[in-house]
Design brief:
Layout lengths: L2 H7 L6 E6 L5 H7 L1 H4 L2 E8 L3 H8 L4 H10 L4 E6 L2 E4 L7 H4 L6 E6 L1
Parallel strand pairs: 1-2
Antiparallel strand pairs: 2-5, 3-4, 3-5
Length: 113
């Protein structure tokens, strides 16, 4: 069952305060397929890692983390990468391909709308 189907089935049209996505490397697919639900969400956090679909798309020279951030930016989210004792802004002109694309790491990405 998709998250969109769950909300439609339960006739829940309220705003969503928090959505946590952690599907072991397939988070990009949840973001791509969940536009209607994400538009009603105030805060979304997802896991970026070097496995699953993140890894497969990166092997084909795609930039899946950048794609996820772009999808969320189009819905007025601002995304951050939690660093040690600070937040690094990823949205709105702060993207650095040399730093963020193709590096095998694990991190949560926090996006606020």
């Amino acid at each position: 069952m998709t998250h969109e189907h769950f909300f439609e089935e339960n006739n829940d049209n309220d705003l969503i305060d928090l959505m946590l996505i952690d599907v072991e490397g397939w988070d990009i697919r949840v973001i791509q397929g969940g536009i209607r639900i994400l538009q009603r969400t105030k805060y979304v956090e997802f896991e970026y890692n070097w496995k699953g679909e993140w890894m497969e798309l990166s092997k084909s020279n795609a930039k899946p983390l950048r794609e996820a951030i772009t999808i969320l930016e189009k819905m007025n989210f601002v995304c951050y990468w939690p660093g040690q004792d600070e937040l690094w802004r990823l949205s709105t002109g702060c993207w650095n391909e040399k730093v963020y694309d193709g590096i095998p790491f694990w991190s949560n990405i926090a996006c606020v709308n």
